[in-house]
Amino acid sequence: MQIDKAAIRQEFQRHERDTGSSEVQIALLTKEIEALTQHLKANKKDHSSRRGLIRKVNNRRNLLAYLRKENFESYKQLVAKLGLRAK
């Protein structure tokens, strides 16, 4: 369940030292959500991990709403790149 955070940051960063932009945070959360989803498919009774998954999904939703409001073009590109469904 290890996620290569450095590679994800490098792919989605705005500039060389960018580690905390909305795009990077959303990409990291998306990879963590995917990993937790796979974990929960195998471990259906792991309710503490399910709570963590719900928290990450809500955090990503809030970040996506912020990015959509602030920079719609960047939002569209990120949603397409990550394969997320846009509303």
Q: Class, according to the CATH hierarchy?
A: Mainly Alpha
Give the name of the CATH superfamily.
Answer: S15/NS1, RNA-binding
The percentage helix is over 70%
Number of helices: 4
Spatial extent as radius of gyration: 14 Å
CATH fold type: Helix Hairpins
Number of strands: 0
Q: What class would the helix/strand composition place it in?
A: mainly alpha
Low-confidence stretches: none
Strand count, sense and barrel status of the largest sheet are: none
Helix-strand topology string: HHHH
**Ends: how far apart?**
29 Å
Supply the number of structural domains: 1
In what range is the share of β-strand residues? under 5%
Please state the overall shape, judged from the principal axes of the Cα atoms: globular
Architecture, CATH level 2? Answer: Orthogonal Bundle
What's the mean pLDDT score?
93
Fold topology:
Layout: H1 5-12, H2 22-42, H3 47-70, H4 72-82
Notes on the protein architecture:
With 87 residues, the protein is an all-alpha fold. It has one domain: S15/NS1, RNA-binding (Helix Hairpins, Orthogonal Bundle), CATH 1.10.287. It contains four helices and no strands. Helix 3 packs antiparallel against helix 4. The longest helix is centred in the last third of the chain and has 24 residues. 15% of the residues are buried. The mean pLDDT is 93.
Structure summarized in a few sentences:
74% of the residues lie in helices and 0% in strands. It has 87 residues and is mostly helical.
